[in-house]
Design a protein that fits this description.
eleven-stranded mixed sheet, two-stranded antiparallel ribbon, 299 residues
């Protein structure tokens, strides 16, 4: 069964301050998503599913459908605040959906095959897509998933702190867990994190997850089985998020299976802050000049 690429594009981009998912970064007006889709097609993917906000659907489709027509099959899923919440009464102060775990749950009924999932606003590099596609095609099943791991030093911003999921692995290179650090930044020649009053140091080679996972379709069912209890415990918390890495961690801890760690030396870059945009544009321009990408992805 051919694997599918899923792109998480429903975020509100609160720190960035605009809809960065559709901002132009390439010399031909390409978005970061364009480069991910281009790399995915080259790797072998034949279908992409976008998880977006319904109120943004017409604008989104007008941007992507003309250039992707005939190149890759497309489908759309809408993440809504009340999706899969049942008859629970959502507090008025809750305005955002419930996070990436709920986004994956919204794939139910649309994705029934192995799939890779990525963030819309992250540039992952061609190597990651080649390795993910190979894994999905040859190894992925209901008990074996994977996460693409990046070296921490290749994922930082010069313009502020970032959130990173630090992976712990066993001797067989399987993920044992993920520790979320919400404030990671450079301090001189060191990489440090802060959690409340606690401060620690991380090595440049620390393996981190950038939300590039490879799952079997049963992962969607696992999201569904955990979402209800999450809501019951967090319904009154306007900032609570049901996150995909949490579900992945439960997949391991509850004995459902294993998550292989796929390592890549690719340099990740993204636009957490507006000040990151010129750096991303320059990085893409350098890749184009090196011949890694054509000046116009979709001629």
């Amino acid at each position: 069964m051919q694997p599918t690429l899923v792109i998480l594009a429903a975020g509100m981009a609160s720190r960035y301050g605009s809809m960065k998912q559709t901002e132009s970064f390439g010399p031909g007006g390409e978005t970061i998503m364009d480069y991910s889709i281009y790399d995915a097609i080259r790797a072998g993917f034949q279908k992409v599913v976008f998880i977006i906000r319904e109120d943004f659907a017409d604008n989104f489709k007008a941007i992507f459908e003309p250039k992707l027509k005939g190149k890759i099959e497309t489908a759309y899923v809408y993440q809504k605040l009340d999706a899969f919440t049942g008859d629970r009464e959502i507090p008025a102060e809750r305005t955002k959906p419930w996070g990436t775990g709920q986004a994956i749950l919204c794939l139910k009924g649309t994705v029934n095959e192995p799939f890779a999932v990525i963030n819309a606003d992250d540039f992952y590099g061609a190597d990651a897509f080649v390795k993910a596609y190979d894994f999905l095609l040859k190894k992925c099943n209901s008990k074996v998933f994977a996460v693409v791991a990046y070296r921490l030093v290749n994922t930082l911003s010069d313009n502020g702190s970032v959130s990173r999921g630090v992976l712990s692995t066993g001797s067989n290179n399987e993920m044992q867990g993920v520790t979320e650090h919400t404030k990671v930044f450079k301090e001189g020649d060191k990489i440090v994190f802060e959690e409340g009053d606690r401060k620690g140091e991380l090595t440049s080679d620390t393996q981190v997850s950038m939300n590039f996972f490879c799952f079997g379709p049963n992962f969607i069912d696992l999201c569904e089985s955990l979402f209800g209890s999450f809501l019951d415990a967090n319904l009154q918390n306007p900032k609570a998020e049901f996150l995909m890495p949490y579900v992945a961690d439960r997949f391991i801890k509850d004995g459902h299976g294993v998550i292989d760690v796929i390592t890549t030396d690719a340099k990740w870059f993204g636009v957490t802050y507006k000040e990151d945009a010129p750096v991303v544009k320059a990085s893409i321009e350098a890749q184009v000049n090196s011949g890694a990408y054509p000046p116009a992805l979709w001629p």
